[in-house]
Amino acid sequence: MQQLLNTCEEQEETSGEIGAIPFAMKSSIRSVGCWVPPTVVKTEDIEAEIRHVYPYRGFSLAGVTGVLERRFSEDGGGALAASLRAVEALQEKSPFDYASIDVLIFAGVSRDYIEPAMATVIARELGIQTTVAFDVSNACLGFVDALLVADSLISTKRCSNALVVSAEFGSNASKNALRAIKSGESFYHNFAALTLGDGAAAALIQPMQPGNTRCIAGIRASFPEYSDSCVIPMRKPEELEMYTDPKRLFAGALKHIPELYKSLAGAVKWLPSDIDALIPHQASSKIILEGAHSVQIAAEKVVSTIERFGNLASVSIPFTLAHALSTGRLTAGKKAMVAGFGSGLGIGLIALRG
Length: 354
Hints:
single chain; about 350 residues; 2 domains; about 20% strand; ten-stranded mixed beta sheet; Peroxisomal Thiolase, Chain A, domain 1; alpha+beta; two-stranded antiparallel ribbon
């Protein structure tokens, strides 16, 4: 750990154009619980409704995005109910005492209330009376940022057990995008919303412990020149619309993720061949593979959930991490790199060790 801290300090002196430096982390992930609604919505059914407005012959929504299906909540969903289901799934995987939770952070974009904080409502429903509860919302990067906040609290010994929860109902924006496209509005600025799905995840974050997935180091940066590339104006949940300039947003991600990755990989002294699993944000299979190729990580090391579950926004990273853990892609001794990004443009990477 001290060697890592020394390396990070050396990089601070030569951080270069990105202005971001790697930092050591002192927390670990005990387990991740997830929930998705049962209703499956297939891309081929969506395409049947809008194929006549495709921008060019041969265009395929599934081909461009990699999404074959996603899950929708039939009743439009609720962030609280979904969050509680994810926490229940976490309890089933790795039982813990709710009274031991020092900090509870909600990290989703979807929410049932503007105020109070969703975290306080979740704490109430779980019967947790002594926790510090607050929300950290930052588009698709919300869970990564919440994990970094939890790590900071654990590193400074102000927290022993942090519960990080996120729930997303992208189906609202997806259904509105489909209506907009069918009514003649811009296909280009609306089609990214068609990749969204519903789901929730909850993770228990602790100090370093045997058997947990260890957070070794991280790096975080923002590039606000892209803040207009993906926008959801303030509306009622059922009226949410997402306007995206996908080419510009993804170009920004593909420009800056490699340089941040190289900085973090250099700090932990990992070569591309050392990494057993790449756990990326699930926005587009094409962008995921281009990003992996740009940092010389083999395609077979990419952990993907986008084909069956679509883009789950802030739930995407913990959901894919849970998949990596449950399928043996990340086990004791293995190395993984989390690569998250969200509109803003925010990028966060975390080096994990099983």
